[in-house]
Amino acid sequence: MVKRNLHKIYMGLIFVFLYAPILVLVTYSFNDSTSRGNWGGFTLKWYIDLFNDRDIKTALYYTVIVAVLAATIATFIGTISAIGLYNFNKTPKSIMVNINYLPVVNPDIVTGLSLMILYLSTNMRLGFLSMLLSHITFDIPFVILAVMPKLKSLNKHLTEAALDLGATPLYALRKVVIPEIMPGIITGFLIAFTLSIDDFVISFFTTGSGVTNLSIVIYSMARRGVKPTINALSTLMLTAVLILLFIINKRSALVDGQKNNGGNY
Amino acid sequence: MNKKQKFFAYPYVVWMFIFIVLPIVLVFLYSITTKEVNNIKTINFTLNNYKLFFDPLYIGVTIRSINLALVSTIFCLVLGYPIAFIISKINIKHRNTVLLLFILPMWMNMLLRTYAWMTILGNNGIINNFLNMLGFPSLRLLYNNSAIIIGMVYNFLPFMVLPIYTALSKMDQHLVEASHDLGADNRTTFLRVILPLSLPGVISGIIMVFMPAVSSFVIPRLLGGNRSLYIGTLIENLFLVTGDWNFGSAVAIMMMLIILVSMSILNRFDVDKEGGGSNLW
Amino acid sequence: MGNKIIELKNISKDYDVRVLNKINLYVNENEFLTLLGPSGCGKTTTLRILGGFEFPTEGDLFFEGKNINNVPPHKRQINTVFQKYALFPHLNIYENIAFGLRIKKTSDAIIKEEVKKMLKLVNLEGFESRNIDSLSGGQQQRIAIARALINKPKVLLLDEPLGALDLKLRKEMQLELKHMQREVGITFVYVTHDQEEALTMSDTVVVMNHGEIQQIGTPVDIYNEPENAFVADFIGESNIIDGVMNEDYLVTFLGRTFKCVDYGFNKNESIHVVLRPEDIVMVPEKEGYLKGTVTSTIFKGVHYEMIVNVGALDILVQSTYQSPVGDRVGLKFTPEDIHIMSKEA
């Protein structure tokens, strides 16, 4: 019993450590005082400031556009490449899979600066395109890593059965293989999307000419000193994350429910 | 599967070559050439960039970074192992909820999480305000090593907890019972069965914390201020401020080497433990 | 024999529901006792209570006369062979077997000697430095036994230890286990759902169902004199037929009255009649006590198993001769083949 309580106290302290900073941000986003020490009463003015802030609006636009595009393209390339790689012979496959791992195990800063060198050495202008290409590059490996296990656990005879029943290979792929590995593809997309939304280091190195994302804006604002608009921004981003999680949870509960119902027939 | 589907991967093989292999080759190339080169014909090979890295100044930077990363990793391990252990013991009904609560902060942008600590530790931050209220003078909490360590532990703790938790929850509960059955009390069971079996998780946790910690430049920049250089901030400086790509590339290559070497040492450690059990005693 | 080493008194265990209800049982020294029953009958829970991994909600557990309700597993002179062996994957075979002695801080020299002895006992000499994942299921099984026996427990608990082995290996291990038990001379408490295994190996069989003990007895008793329909049905395949006990030695079922060897029931008590399929003899229709049509014939290797429909119900018959489906046949049996069980038990 004593041990039980000790466990609870310890976990309690850890949760304080984890959540206190977030709570502080949220609280201060409603604080009507520039100096963070004092509570100057409730206000929404930082939110209004935020909506009038050009930099932030531009950054938000690029963040979303890049994340959607990069995750979609990476999911497409990653999925078909995983299917292709899966059919490689042993040695070339393991070489390719290992190269694919590089962006995953390399520190972000190395990925970022090496891509920057690539773009600048080929006289490419840093900006939207370079940032998008970089995001796709570090997204694809995660999609492949999410799809590969599903391919491995796929019943090898499924495609053969489809071919046997007269399907063309492409038809079998579309109607049999892809639906079977769909959960992996969706996971891959979600990972890619989250990574892109959150990325700072690689974007920081590979962007230029006024193209930014939220992370970069926060970084430059934070370096210039603490600004209450960031608190408002954090609160909004946190809310967005919570809503997203809620939707995902609901969705998976719904999917589970449907599956269970299906089992009854 | 159809062998023709190999072709599906060919575009990505090309992509990998251009966007993964080529950039790293370029970094390496820059690290072994002199700065003066402007076109391919006048390329000059040199090892000076690496020599410069071994200058006491930069060796100091490297050691400081490794130290900081090690301390952060140790804190993560010491704080994180009990967390993983406790979560793995929680009733299955509540376990996922606790786990979700634990990783929820991870969903917040890393910059914001780091920034939050500026608000707490800053000269006008919560802690100092509280101290002032009680009549104590302000402490300088931000812009030093402790602040960096707090930031790193805050950001990387889940990387330590999750693999350990996975190892612990995958462990066959009968092994623990078998140990008790054979006469081991809780402490002995932990030391001789649970800990060794969770070692693979501990090792991946260490790798997953040490790697971003040693290469991070955001956390030192925001919480450590401009005062001292770390390997990450040094690289950023060289590339984005001074524009010395050659030396910067050499430092980046050295950092990759450090990470590679520490990873392989750790992995060997793991294999040893799993292979010859008798070494354990 | 004769000394009670373990005694369970009114042991009950509740999780959300009651899984054990008032178990009363004792185990004698050097006895091979088997807890037999279908999955979910409470046999494994009983074993886990003996091992100390679960604590009874009610009742008392005695070991050599002392109450051990609250003694943790590591302080009990009882060792367990776990269902899937639970060998430590991070230790080699030598260290797995030595585990218990290491804890007791036994000297290296003695450990070495003891491990060698144990490996000899389980016929795996020379396996010391191998990894456990290099072993077959049967070999892992032996290591698990050696790991438990090296601690010289007074009682060894075995939780479906042969469940994961194939049939041939199972038969071999059954004999070997019995042999080992005699050689080391300790008490075995064995859990299985395989009735044949229970009957082959045990001195005493405890049949359980729904958290309650159905019958305790020697294998012969259990087989020949099942106390209720569940035991009869579970121990081998049986025909269980509703009947009425007219008086001592006289029973009526399926519309006919038969002589039997049972007595002591109330007059006209409603009872179950057990007819073992191998006790029934198939004869030409007119010679049979019961008449019916063969509805299925399956070849089972040594014998044929046939279902004969006698109007009201199907009767299972085993015979070395085959009667084709559709044949009219008669069924015959002797008074000794009729087993009577009271309905409430």
Describe this structure in words.
The complex is a heterotrimer of chains A (about 260), B (about 280) and C (about 350). Chain A has about 260 residues and is an all-alpha fold. Chain A has two domains: about 1-45; about 50-250, MetI-like (MetI-like fold), CATH 1.10.3720.10. Chain A has eleven helices and no strands. Chain A has helices spanning about 1-30, 45-50, 55-85, 90-105, 110-120, 130-150, 155-165, 170-200, 200-205, 215-225, 230-265. The longest helix of chain A is centred in the C-terminal third of the chain and has 37 residues, at about 230-265. Chain A is globular, with a radius of gyration of 23 Å. Mean pLDDT of chain A is about 85; it is low at about 260-265. Chain B is mainly alpha-helical and about 280 residues long. Chain B has one domain (about 30-280): Orthogonal Bundle (MetI-like fold), CATH 1.10.3720. Chain B has twelve helices and no strands. In chain B, helix 7 (about 145-170) crosses helix 9. Chain B is globular, with a radius of gyration of 24 Å. Helices cover about 25% and strands about 35% of the residues of chain C. The model of chain C has no long low-confidence stretch (mean pLDDT about 90). In chain C, helix 2 crosses helix 3, helix 2 runs parallel beside helix 4 and helix 3 (about 110-120) packs across helix 4 (about 135-150). Chain C has eight helices and 20 strands. With about 350 residues, chain C is of the alpha+beta class. Classes of the chains: A mainly alpha (about 260), B mainly alpha (about 280), C alpha+beta (about 350). Chains in contact: A-B, B-C. At the A-B interface, helix 1, helix 3, helix 4, helix 5 and helix 6 of A face helix 1, helix 3, helix 4, helix 5 and helix 6 of B.
Itemize the secondary structure elements and their pairings:
The complex is a heterotrimer of chains A (265), B (281) and C (345).
Chain A: H1 2-28, H2 45-52, H3 54-86, H4 90-105, H5 108-121, H6 128-152, H7 157-164, H8 169-198, H9 201-206, H10 214-224, H11 228-264
Helix pairs in contact in A: 1-11, 2-11, 3-6, 3-8, 3-10, 4-6, 6-8, 7-8
Chain B: H1 10-31, H2 48-53, H3 56-89, H4 92-103, H5 110-121, H6 126-133, H7 145-170, H8 173-181, H9 186-215, H10 218-223, H11 231-241, H12 245-275
Helix pairs in contact in B: 1-12, 3-7, 3-9, 5-7, 7-9, 8-9, 9-12, 11-12
Chain C: E1 4-14, E2 18-28, E3 32-36, H1 43-51, E4 58-63, E5 66-67, E6 78-81, H2 93-103, H3 108-121, H4 137-149, E7 155-159, H5 167-184, E8 187-192, H6 195-201, E9 204-209, E10 212-217, H7 219-224, H8 229-234, E11 239-247, E12 250-253, E13 256-259, E14 269-275, E15 281-283, E16 290-299, E17 304-309, E18 314-319, E19 328-332, E20 339-342
Helix pairs in contact in C: 2-3, 2-4, 3-4
